[in-house]
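lol forgot to send this yesterday, sorry. struct tokens for the thing we talked abt
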């Protein structure tokens, strides 16, 4: 068939009333033509049926629309009742009724444990204090999150989930939060993971952002984060602008900032409402003064690594700069004390309440006797500037030592002083206990048994005595024990009444710690009148118990009848730098404390405390 004989046309199909494309094939004409024509009556009837179907379709659509509106109203009503039911269940929920101190322990327990492989390390040295005050029922400090670095070392705890639970159940109570990130030095065990310290983990940043959504509720916010990473934007997961904006939104809170491993105090220039600051590696008096001038509202300032400066670098000021809010100042420095005195001349601190001055030279460092010296002559007069406000003073500046006249003169110039600690050195100056006549608490370390003399017994205010001794032979050990027991016996309440010395304070606590010569065995005799009985302990790498330890155990029963101590007036450290040793109280478990508050709840309440540890 030739293509010239094929004509293409469009025709109407007789069977389906559809237009089809005729390819031009030789199709019989009767197939493409309609051989039936509708009458007028048939056309009218079909049109009536079409109108009826259109009317029914419209009615169905209207009915569906009406029922849809009703369903929406019913769904909204259902959600309203569901939300009301949830809120009413929350009111009687055990989680809602848990006190804030229980929540504090829950989150501290969950976030303060750091896991590295199979090792578990408790970060007790970096955890915040659990002590809180409750001035009234309307103002309750709430949980603080102590370890935001958990995402680096914990695979079984999601800090973000903990935060969401915490914010959900903490209601409107003011928040008290501490953030610690990977910039914290946890010791040499983390050497293998320290390459992560220069970056901020994405999940940690998301946790920060979650906290900043509630920053307006923060009564106290402490940040110890990777400031260098924030400044240099080393991490590409975020823009650092949100961080500073969040800090600015929390300007009304008691913001505390701490900085580590960063040479420039750039963040001080960005935030001018810091209440507590702890910079490191501040170079020279000029750097220290500039940092303080940028933060005139700082209340607590602690600086470590204060480097040596040249005399030419001393800042020259025509007037004394004022720090009206500074109440706590702690400075560690590695240069002569004369240099530090220039700092006092540049600033006026009218409300300074606590002052700590120390050197970075350890007391264990080898220092020859000729290197020891007394403090500068102007030191006492400089401290007199704080006579109206200073109550707590600690001096641990190696190799400076203090003799009795200097201590007496210093105390006379600070009439409001209630807490005084200093370090002296027995190998340079003999320890004189004449100063114990104004002491309520005495701690002696690295001395000898002659330090406990009759002058200590005659001290009228002495209520607490702690002695630490090293490298004792059995003979001197026995002599020391006998002296301590004799002192405790003569200073008991009954002995003082019998002697007519009612005005003399009785010894409420006697603590003795010593270590035998060339032995790893450690002995301790501890008696506190607040407890039911004194106790003696002996710690050793072997199972052998010395005879002297048994002697102390039997002799400790003689330390009865003493009275509770009053508020101590002054603390003194002789010899080594040691901390006061307080007895640990019994700590109840989380579950026990929680059930103590929830023991009246029914079995059906939604109380499953263990799930929040996971």
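and heres what i got for the seq, position by position
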């Amino acid at each position: 068939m030739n293509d010239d004989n094929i004509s293409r046309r469009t025709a109407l199909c007789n069977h389906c009333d559809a237009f089809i494309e005729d390819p031009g094939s030789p199709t019989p004409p009767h197939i493409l033509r309609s051989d039936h024509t509708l009458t007028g009556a048939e056309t009218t009837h079909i049109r009536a049926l079409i109108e009826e179907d259109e009317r029914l379709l419209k009615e169905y659509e209207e009915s569906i629309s009406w029922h849809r509106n009703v369903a929406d109203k019913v769904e909204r009503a259902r959600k309203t009742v569901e939300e009301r039911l949830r809120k009413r269940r929350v009111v009687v929920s055990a989680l809602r009724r848990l006190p804030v101190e229980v929540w504090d322990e829950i989150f501290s327990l969950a976030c303060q444990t750091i896991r590295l492989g199979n090792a578990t390390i408790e970060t007790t040295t970096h955890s915040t204090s659990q002590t809180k005050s409750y001035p009234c029922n309307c103002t309750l400090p709430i949980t603080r999150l102590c370890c935001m670095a958990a995402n680096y070392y914990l695979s079984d705890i999601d800090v973000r989930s903990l935060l969401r639970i915490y914010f959900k159940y903490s209601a409107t109570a003011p928040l008290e939060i501490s953030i610690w990130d990977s910039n914290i030095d946890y010791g040499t065990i983390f050497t293998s993971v320290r390459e992560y310290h220069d970056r901020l983990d994405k999940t940690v940043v998301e946790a920060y952002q979650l906290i900043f959504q509630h920053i307006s509720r923060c009564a106290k916010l402490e940040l110890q984060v990777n400031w260098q990473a924030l400044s240099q934007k080393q991490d590409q997961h975020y823009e650092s602008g949100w961080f500073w904006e969040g800090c600015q939104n929390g300007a009304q809170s008691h913001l505390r900032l701490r900085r580590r491993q960063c040479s420039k105090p750039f963040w001080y220039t960005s935030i001018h409402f810091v209440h507590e600051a702890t910079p490191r590696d501040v170079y020279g008096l000029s750097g220290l003064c500039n940092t303080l001038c940028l933060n005139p509202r700082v209340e607590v300032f602690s600086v470590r690594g204060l480097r040596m400066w040249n005399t030419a670098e001393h800042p020259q000021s025509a007037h004394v700069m004022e720090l009206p809010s500074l109440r706590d100042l702690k400075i560690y420095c590695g240069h002569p004390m004369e240099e530090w005195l220039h700092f006092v001349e540049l600033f006026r601190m009218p409300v300074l309440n606590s002052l700590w001055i120390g050197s970075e030279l350890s007391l264990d460092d080898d220092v020859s006797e000729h290197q020891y010296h007394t403090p500068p002559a102007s030191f006492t007069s400089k401290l007199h500037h704080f006579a109206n406000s200073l109550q707590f003073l600690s001096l641990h500046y190696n190799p400076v030592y203090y003799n009795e006249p200097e201590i007496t003169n210093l105390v006379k110039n600070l009439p409001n002083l209630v807490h005084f600690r200093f370090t002296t050195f027995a190998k340079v100056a003999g320890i004189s206990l004449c100063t114990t006549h104004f002491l309520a608490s005495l701690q002696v370390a690295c001395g000898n048994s002659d330090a406990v003399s009759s002058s200590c017994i005659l001290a009228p205010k002495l209520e607490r005595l702690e002695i630490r001794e090293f490298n004792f032979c059995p003979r001197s050990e026995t002599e020391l024990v006998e002296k301590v027991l004799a002192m405790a016996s003569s200073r008991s309440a009954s002995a003082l009444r019998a002697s007519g010395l009612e005005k003399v304070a009785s010894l409420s606590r006697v603590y003795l710690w010593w270590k035998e010569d060339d032995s790893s065995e450690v002995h301790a005799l501890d008696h506190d009148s607040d407890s039911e009985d004194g106790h003696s302990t002996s710690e050793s790498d072997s199972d052998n118990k010395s005879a002297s330890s048994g002697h102390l155990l039997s002799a400790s029963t003689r330390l009865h009848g003493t009275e509770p101590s009053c508020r101590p007036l002054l603390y003194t450290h002789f010899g080594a730098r040691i901390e006061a040793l307080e007895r640990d109280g019994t700590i109840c478990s989380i579950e026990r404390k929680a059930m103590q508050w929830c023991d009246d709840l029914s079995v059906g309440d939604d109380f499953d405390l263990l799930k929040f540890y996971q």
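DSSP finds 18 helices and 21 strands in the chain. anyway ping me if u want another try
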